[in-house]
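Data availability (excerpt). The following record was deposited with the supplementary files.
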Amino acid sequence: MSAGKDRNRSDNESSSVLALTEDSFVSRLAGALEALGYGVERQSQLKGRSGVEHRFDIVVKKKKEGKFLDPIAIAVEGTPAGKDEASIIRHFAMSYDVNPVRVFIVSSRSLSESANKLASMYKLCVIEESSAERAAQELSRRMIKE
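Predicted structure:
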């Protein structure tokens, strides 16, 4: 087999492993949020002001005094290292369109310094946490605070 075919197969295998890992993290995060009492919808779409439907990994709603709070969208960052900035820009565009819905970005790895600077400039809340359970606790703390 040629080196090019080997490289393509390796890239595809890496993408498959990354997708499985991300899906597992999303499942654990959704379960942990449910355990904290939040209403959770996985792979949910929110319609933006533009009319475009944006898919988020998790949309959270929590009952408060018999009423549902406004939804909170969570995007789990699963892009490979080196593509962080483009992903932050994409999440900003989605966040801008679905405003006033709050958007949180959860990453199971540390994002690059430049991606964190972009997120800060765009006023996006980023949680870097390898444990889905600890990420859920931090999300809960920040959702209540903000």
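Summary of structural features: Helices lie at 3-35, 84-98, 113-121, 132-145.
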